[in-house]
Request: fold
Amino acid sequence: MKYANEPGSLFWIGTCWKATSISEFWRRWNPVVSDENANVLKWIHQRTANRFVITTSIFTIFLFWGLIHDGFIFLTNNLLHTNRSFEFSFTYFFCLNAVAVILDKNLSFSLPLPNRLKTILVFLWLLGSLRYRHLIVYYLFF
Reply:
C-alpha cells in the first residue's frame, strides 16, 4: 500500500500525520523503506509462521535502523572532529517504537476514540519516546 500517492501529499511527509496507530505511522513515514521491510517480513513469514520469529524480526528491523541512524550521527560527528562517543540514542527510540508496533500488531485492539484523538495520542507517544528515551530504557532495564 503506497500512502505517498494520496492526493495532496508531499512524497511521504504529508501522509504520516494521518496515522491513527503506531504501526500505521511507521508504514506511512517512509513508504519505500516500509515496503522493503514488509518484503523481508513476508519472506520470513513464508518460511515460518512462527509468531516469535516474526516478532523478533520486527524488533530486529527497528534495531537495525536505529543503529544505522546512530552510526551516521557518529560518523558525522567524527568527521566534524567533535570526538563524541557512539551513543545509542536513536537505537533506544527505534527499539521503544518496535515494542509499541509489536504490541499494536499482537494485541490487535482499537480504542473507541475519534481518529483525530488517536492521531494526537500517536504523536504524543512519538514525541515522548524521542524526548524521554534514555529515562524509559533506564527504568525498564536497570
Remarks:
- The chain has one domain: 8-141.
- The helical segments are 13-16, 22-29, 31-47, 51-79, 89-107, 115-131, 133-141.
- The mean pLDDT is 76.
